[in-house]
Amino acid sequence: MITCSAPGKIYLFGEHAVVYGHSAICCAIDLRTRVQAAKHDSFIIGSVLGTTGLDLEVHPYVSKVIEMMQDYKRIEGVRIRIESELPVGSGLGSSAAVTVATIQALNQLYACGLQLEDVAGMAHSIEREVQGNASPTDTYVSTMGGVMLVPERRKLKGLDCQIVIGNTGKFSSTKELVSNVAKLRQEFPEIIDTILGDIGKMAHIAEEHVNRKDYGTIGKLMNVNQGLLDAIGVGGAELSELVYAARNAGAISSKITGAGGGGCIVALAGREDADEVFRAIKNTGAQAILTRNTHEGVRMEP
Ligand code: MEV
Fold first, then answer.
1. Are residues 151 and 164 in the same domain?
2. What are the pLDDT digits (tens) for 161-204?
3. Which residues touch 186 (CB under 8 Å, ≥6 apart)?
4. Is 138 a catalytic residue?
């Protein structure tokens, strides 16, 4: 039996813009999805969603991984158990983490010889098949860990501030949100392209500030990015409530992370303010999670 885990992620900058080839800065977080895989005489996939066989409705990512791994080794049966600290459909990269951890678990169990770049590449093609237009960002960062400028794939210095996440609890469909932005762009190409380009520029400007750990400047830019996400229509009242609760409680910055619509916000906070930010988010009735950046991507668990 093999257990592998992979981390979730937050976007400091660049969600949606990255779909159009602009730059983004993404950061792996210390909330992981664990996948246990054991050879078996049939296919069994178990998670909080239930226990199924190969099932593209309930367990689309894991089922697709098993299907694709058949190109490397013949798998006649396997028992998979998934446990996750990442809320599903909330913008924290839960689908990337489960896909990456499952690929690596089967890679190890069947000695397929895949390298990390192969794992990330396969995970991206599975995300694209399941959810349509997905950038390689989530799967790459979940595989490699750390803080990453994409699509350049430059590893930046790690963040050592506190990361507070606020989860609205409202399910958010990445596919739908990405498609809404595409429609708005079709209607107002000059305006939306300018905004998406500006978001990408922000990621480039922020790169050196991340490397210098200049949280004040990173924070100002993240707050501007939040305004632009609102402008392209992926915000909402629940998200704004959390964004301002965090800022009023002393967060360095706060913004939507991921596709928006529902899902999560991320706030950066100094050690002395993190508890207050956490409490302020909780007081709105939302789920609050305190976490940190992790340099570890996909890994084998003991
Ligand atoms: C979703 O986590 C981030 C988006 O930019 C979509 C993607 O990059 O595939 C909205």
1. no
2. 999 999 999 988 888 999 999 999 999 999 999 999 999 999 99
3. none
4. yes
The pLDDT tens digits for 246-258 are 999 999 999 999 9
Task: Answer yes or no: is 298 within a domain.
Answer: no
For ligand 1, say whether the CB of 137 is within 6 Å of any of its atoms.
yes
Question: Which whole-number Å values give the CA distances from 184 to 64, 180, 257, in the listed order?
Answer: 32, 6, 20
Q: Is the dihedral of CA 201, 203, 132, 172 positive or negative?
A: negative
**Ligand 1 pocket, 24 CB below 6 A?**
no
The answer as to whether 302 is a domain residue is no
CA 134 to ligand 1: nearest atom: 9
The verdict on residue 296 lying in a domain is no
Report, as ranges of residue numbers, the positions in the chain whose pLDDT lies below 50.
none
pTM of the model: 0.94
- Considering the domain architecture, whether residues 127 and 189 belong to the same structural domain is answered as no
Give the position, in ligand 1's atom list, of the atom nearest the Cα of 15. 5
Q: Is the CB of 78 under 6 A from ligand 1?
A: no
Residues 244, 277, single domain; the answer is yes
